[in-house]
């Protein structure tokens, strides 16, 4: 890490560089990375810099009051400290077929959308970035977005707008969209649900893309055993075990990170059977297609699933 910027009272931006000074590999706009801080706690953070600048990666870290050591530790690091990060992964990719793109951010959820805005501007695509926060002082990158980027005219800042008044603003943007338009949102759960409800009426649920780093509560009371098949071998998954746990117990290595259905690390292909989606990483369209699932939390609605690892 070679630079730290105190963006707001509770948000700081870290610029991460490789120890040998070499550039990072290209990644898709909207990606996030795993970051392991000084306390050993692993968390996911969205990249917020320009995707074309591979000399360093930017992440914005909000200090959470109930932090278990992740965000708090990253608010104490200084330039020169060493952090361990993973390769960028993407759950919020830009749809190349959209006629218009609407990015709707709530609070620190602006981070992946800022990254995407840079890329959309580079492409010359039609887009609007709406940014809501409790106050101007709590808006990370507010000054940058107001006048520090070439696409400032595409940005609408809405500090201090109560949640109940936000749908009216969203509907005014919705009127300009078509069924070919796509919407991308990141922020608190209730905020994203509201965005999905408003825009889904015009663009359809499959064209509303959500970035969520919060695990949802899962009711496991009715869980039943089922069988999972991979590479021609079948394994019993008991009611109290996950697919991920069973595969690892049989020596099958699965890429994983959060193990809460949030980061998307363990998302794998479904070749046969119907999954019971319980994750917070796949989009509504992905879940409806039933050809992918998160092995750490999702189960089966059929007696057997045939899967493949990515």
From TrEMBL:
Domain 2Fe-2S ferredoxin-type: 224-310
InterPro entries: 2Fe-2S_ferredoxin-like_sf, 2Fe-2S_ferredoxin-type, 2Fe2S_fd_BS, Beta-grasp_dom_sf, FAD-bd_FR_type, FNR_nucleotide-bd, MRET, Riboflavin_synthase-like_b-brl
Ranges where the FAD-binding FR-type domain occurs: 1-95
Assigned keywords, A-Z: 2Fe-2S, Flavoprotein, Iron, Iron-sulfur, Metal-binding, Oxidoreductase
Pfam family, one: Fer2
Organism (species): Gordonia desulfuricans
Leader sequence segment: none
One function term, GO molecular function aspect: 2 iron, 2 sulfur cluster binding
Name of this chain's protein: Oxidoreductase
